[in-house]
Design goal:
By secondary structure, the chain is an alpha/beta fold. The protein contains 16 helices and 14 strands. It has 3 domains: 152 residues, Rossmann fold (3-Layer(aba) Sandwich), CATH 3.40.50; 119 residues, Rossmann fold, CATH 3.40.50.2300; 89 residues, no CATH class. Helix 2 crosses helix 11, helix 5 runs parallel beside helix 6 and helix 7 runs parallel beside helix 9.
Length: 450
């Protein structure tokens, strides 16, 4: 009997161990191939996790994520991609053209979902945007294509700049096409363009030294993950040398940059997480079309513009989605939100400042509680009370009008009801009996003046 019980116990333990191993293997693994550092990628990761959760996957619960970071060194990307493939990940997530090329060269079977990238069709990475084919799909943010637009915006902000500079990363495979597009845009504007190249921190410092020697009036910083990882250094150099510059992401303007134009990082990475969730549930990358953003944010830092001695034209302020620092007059999207109506603004003010009890003032001064007179309208609090009181007064007047009309009466001049009547202390119309109709009953379709 003891031998039989021992054999049963060992068999049960082996079955449980196999079930646990199968459960661990069933949890999918995502390989995240990052071009820069985790700190700079925080907005991107937040949007990615948000989209992933919308498909039912939460990191640490039913999905695992393996992170690899290149820290701005693109030569490390192939080795990092090979390491992820060796970990048997189910899908690879990456960003920008260097990351896409490294992942695509490493595998042709594991699905790859990307964010960013240039002209992937011209680079031969996908067949088309609608039908990418192969194992690659994602979100193309059209960032390199926006560089000529950034030059136009900067030229509008600094019209006196007859000479501008373009800062690019020579390590990108599409650098030459970016330079050609911006040079064409500069020729149409009649602006001379100098090309500055930087792929390390020391080269960034040297590029700004050359920029000062050239006496360029403005700087266009091309889109690149490496420049995003050196955000603080770039913004500090532009401020130190008093150079008006336009950037790719709104985070540059929030850090003190003059102006930025591009898509939103958090909102742009959310569809990436949704695509990854669909692939983990069985969808094929070849059947998922490459999406492109439909909205681009224009952010202007008025504090930096004032420090540079620039006056931002109203044409730019009207198109801006946000004007930094917070608290400046509304423009663009903020101004459109301000047109929603006074009632919404009153409600927002009330919601932003909850009611707090006040200590009574023995002298009955302005700091004491508002008194409700027997024949007067109760004064509400200064912030938010006007809206609530107006709604109550309007509803009470309408109810009284309906009752008076039903009794065959017509509204005339306003008067104040006694304190014990309907709507204590509120103004109501004094009734006036129409000629030819009795006080009670009679016609019920009479119209009352407001």
């Amino acid at each position: 009997m003891r031998r039989r019980e021992l054999m049963l116990l060992l068999g049960g333990m082996m079955t449980t161990a196999r079930a646990l191993c199968a459960q661990q293997k069933a949890m999918p693994v995502i390989g995240y191939l990052g071009n820069i550092s985790p700190g700079v990628s925080a907005p991107s990761l937040a949007g990615f996790r948000q989209g992933l959760s919308e498909t039912g996957y939460v990191e640490g619960q039913n999905v695992a994520i393996e992170y690899r970071w290149a820290e701005g060194r693109y030569d490390r990307l192939p080795a990092l991609a090979a390491d992820l493939i060796g970990r048997k990940v189910d899908v690879i997530v990456t960003a920008s053209t260097p990351g896409i090329q490294a992942a695509k060269s490493a595998t042709s079977t594991i699905p790859i979902v990307f964010f960013g990238g240039g002209d992937l069709v011209a680079l031969g990475l996908v067949a088309s945007l609608a039908r990418p084919g192969g194992n690659l799909t994602g979100i193309s943010i059209m960032s390199p294509e926006l560089n000529p637009k950034r030059l136009d915006l900067l030229s509008e902000l600094v019209p006196q700049a007859g000479m501008m500079a373009l800062l690019v990363n020579p390590s990108r495979p599409d650098t030459e096409s970016v330079i050609g597009d911006v040079q064409e845009a500069a020729g149409l504007k009649g602006v001379r363009l100098h090309i500055l190249k930087a792929g390390t921190e020391a080269e960034i410092d040297a590029a700004f030294t050359s920029l000062v020697q050239l006496r360029a009036g403005a700087l266009v910083v091309a889109s690149d993950p490496f420049f995003n990882s050196r955000r603080e250094q770039l913004v500090a150099l532009a401020s130190r040398h008093a150079v008006p510059a336009i950037w790719e992401w709104r985070e540059f303007a929030e850090a003190g940059g003059l102006i930025s134009y591009g898509s939103n990082l958090t909102g742009g990475w959310r569809p990436v997480g949704i695509y990854v969730g669909k692939i983990l549930k069985g969808a094929k990358p070849a059947d998922l079309p490459i999406q492109q953003p439909t909205k681009f944010e224009l952010v202007i830092n008025l504090k930096t513009a004032k420090a540079l001695g620039l006056t931002v034209p109203q044409s730019l302020l009207g198109r801006a989605d946000e004007v930094r620092p917070v608290g400046q007059p509304a423009a663009g999207a903020d101004r459109r939100a301000a047109r929603q109506g006074s009632s919404a603004l009153c409600a927002e003010r009330h919601d932003g400042e909850p009611d707090r009890p006040q200590a009574p003032d023995p002298a009955g001064g302005r700091d004491g509680p508002r008194r409700r007179g027997a024949y007067g309208l109760a004064r509400e609090r200064r912030r938010g009370g006007e809206f609530r009181g107006a709604v109550r007064r309007r509803r009470t007047r309408r109810a009284v009008h309906r009752r008076r009309a039903a009794r065959g009466l017509q509204a005339a001049r306003p008067y104040r009801l006694p304190a014990d009547d309907i709507g204590r202390g509120r103004e109501h119309p004094q009734p006036r009996r129409r000629r030819g109709f009795p006080a009670g009953g009679g016609r019920r379709d009479l119209q009352c003046r407001p």
